[in-house]
Amino acid sequence: MLNKLRSYLPGKLGKVRPIVPVVRLHGAIGAASPLKSGLNLSSVEDALEIAFSFKEAPAVALSINSPGGSPVQSHLIFKRIRQLADENNKQILVFVEDVAASGGYMIALAGDDIIVDPSSIVGSIGVVSAGFGFTELLEKTGVQRRVYASGDKKVTLDPFSPEVKEDIEHLKTLQHEIHEMFIDMVKSRRGDVLSDDENLFSGLFWTGAKARDLGLVDGLGDLHSTIHERYGKETKVKFVGTKKRFLSRFIPGANLQGGLNEAAGTLPAAALATLEEKSLWAKFGL
Asked: Where is pLDDT greater, at 257 or 146?
């Protein structure tokens, strides 16, 4: 009755347009620093809760563009999305932009439907660890490495020490456990449509069109067109985000609580983190 009465009222008092809230989940996944924003549960939880607070919304949409990163944060974000979806009885629509790879794809699995562009990059279902070895550099420069530790394995995989076979095997065991968890998630969420391609869980990645054939995603399209097709052309797409802190307006990713002193003190670490993030994107030609 209320909606019928509204239809006779002018302007904003009239018929209310349906709304689909959208949360952007963009960037490499991991911890944030004063000078670097990170995609993690802490950084996205407020926006997710706001999106799910639209009681009359027929669905909640997620816009994902991520090359991956921390498997822990990826899993935490996935679990929080599914928890909110179940609590509020909402359908989740995932829209992939450039990339949903590795941890980015893990988050995408939270969607009831995953929609991609034909040229999106999807997959990379695997686990990787990378680092550098500086043992020969120390010898050439004449620098002595001094480490004092309690615990025989406290300096496992130290980049300034020679590799130890047992340490590498231990790392691979951890990677295998995480990889198996990832595979179980994919099968649990998409097992009824997955192909039996032998490379599905090898770490390879594909275009959106091929990913659809493999069963990793549900269809091809874009956010606005898909929402209008499903819920009507009058449906409003509303992007939801957390408010930027004052300092972040001047220093991207800066944390006001950390302060300028902390930001200055972490410049070298932030530079390395930026290079690491760029390498994640570069893997997919971005």
From this structure: 146
Between the CA atoms of 64, 271, 69 and 201, what dihedral angle is there, to the nearest 10 degrees?
100
Beta strand pairing status for 236-240 and 59-66? unpaired
Whole-number Å distance between alpha carbons of 31 and 40 = 6
Contacts of 47 (CB under 8 A, 6+ apart): 23, 24, 240, 241, 242
Angle at which helices 71-88 and 165-190 cross, to 10°: 20
Using a cut of 0.85, tell me whether the model's pTM lies above it.
no
Residues 6+ apart with CB under 8 A from 219: 113, 114, 115, 116, 212
* Residue 59 structure tokens: 């669905």
Most confident of 104-113, 150-159, 170-179: 104-113
CB 248 within 8 A of CB 256: yes
Cβ 28 vs Cβ 69: under 8 Å: yes
Mean pLDDT of the region 42-47: 94
